[in-house]
Structures are given as C-alpha cells and as structure tokens.
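During the reporting period the student researcher (J.K.) took over the structure-prediction task from the postdoctoral fellow and processed the backlog of single-chain submissions. One of the processed entries is reproduced below for the supervisory committee.
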Amino acid sequence: MRKILVVVSLVGFLATSCVSNKKYNELAEKHKQTEDLLNTATMKLNVCLKDYESLQHQVTSLKNQNDLLKENNQQLISNVGNLTTLTQKGAENLEKSLESLREKDLTIRNLRDAVTRRDSINLALVQSLKGAVGNLDDQDIEIKVEKGVVFVNISDKLLFSSGSYAVTSRAKEVLGKVAAVVKNKPDFEFMVEGHTDNVPFRANSSVKDNWDLSVLRATAVVRILQNDFGVTPSRMTAAGRSEYVPVTSNATKEGKAQNRRTRIVVLPKLDQFYNMIEEGIKDPAINK
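J.K. obtained the following structure tokens:
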C-alpha cells in the first residue's frame, strides 16, 4: 500500500512538473519576444531621438534665417523709403540743372546774336573806311577787323617825318577821310595808339625817348581829328605804346618800318554793346 501511494505520488509529481516546464517555455518565449520588441522599440526610439535633434537644429536654423530675413526686409523697406527721398531730391536737382542750362543757353544765344550784330556793324564800318580812304598802298594804310575790333594801321612814313611828331599834309588828307566816317558812327569810340621800333630815340628838349615820341604822335593825330575835322574829343583816347607792342621782328629794316606806325582802334561803346544784348533778349526770334 505504501508502495502504491509512493508511485501515485511520483506520477502526480511528474505530471505536475511537466505542466510547469511547458508554461515556463511559453513564458520564456514570450519574454524573448518582449525583449526583441523592446530592443526594436529602443532602436526606433534612438533613431527618432536623432531625427528629433536634427529637426530641432533645422528649426533653430530656419528661425535664425527667418529673423535675418525679417531684418533684411525691414532694411529694404527703409532703403526704399530713402531711395524715394533721394529720387525726389534727384528729380528736383535735375529740374534745377535743366533750368540753369536753359538760362545759359538763352544767354549764349543772346551773346551770339549780339556778337553777330557787332560783326555786321564792324564789317560795314570797314567797308565804309576802305571806300572813303580809296586805293592806298597796303604798306601805308591797312584796315581790318581783328578779334571783333576794327583797326586802322597807318604807317609812320605816311604820317610823320623821321623822328618827328608833326603830321604831314598827305596824312591830314587821309585822317580827314577817316574822320568823315567815324563822325557818322556816333555809337563808336576809338583810341589812337602811337608805336615805334626799338631804335633808341636821341633825346632833345621836347622828346626824351620812344615813350615820349609814341605819345606825342598819338596826341598829334587826336588834335588833328578834333581841331581840323570836328571829331568829338570825348570819343577819343590818345595812347603811346613805345616799342613794346611790335607787329613783327625789329631785326630787319622792313620789320622796323612795319613797327613804326599809328593805330586807330575803333570799337563800339560798352553801353551800346550791352544794348545790343538787351535787344537780342527782347527779340522774338531769339526767344523761340
């Protein structure tokens, strides 16, 4: 009996042990599966954490870029405002420059017109003088326009004897013809200039040097024009230039002869010239 009980107990124990191993194996298998799942989840979590960290960096970078873009945008808005202001000022300055150019252009056209009128008057004066004087030797008298001024050059041998300031009778005839022309041109003034060569003058009681001689010859011509031909003295100026404004070299006899001369410079009165400018300003043809 006791043997039977031991056997039964042994069979029961074995039966019970077999069931526990099976469950254990099942639990072990589930545990292994859980561990695998946990490892897989851990790996995925680590990947997600790295992605999250990378995304955080990107978010920070994008935020910084956004802040920079906002700052640049604000600067651009400010610059646009400044450019608008500069553009307005530039337009105003441009308009002022254009207005200044228009005024200068008008002034230039007025001056050009006045110069044209002056040149026309000078040309007419030259023609009148040449017609009045007649056909004289070019070496004795020359009438020309130079730099807007009419010059009448009369040689020394026609006007004076050597070393003298007494006007010859032939010269008085020529001066009378010149006076007839200039008397009909009341808007002109003229200056009589005496010139010598560079040969030193032998001083005497009345003439000390070439300065004296050139001045005395100029005043002698002025007196003839005033006293003999009635030219208004206020329109005349007498000047001595001595040897210091030669027309050519004094190295030759011919050169010295050319430099010994009396020059009558005829020019419009300054107020008359300004009147021509004012007339040009009023001229409709100029102000188109």
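The committee noted the following: Strands lie at 141-146, 149-155, 188-195, 236-242, 261-268.
J.K. will present the remaining backlog at the next meeting.
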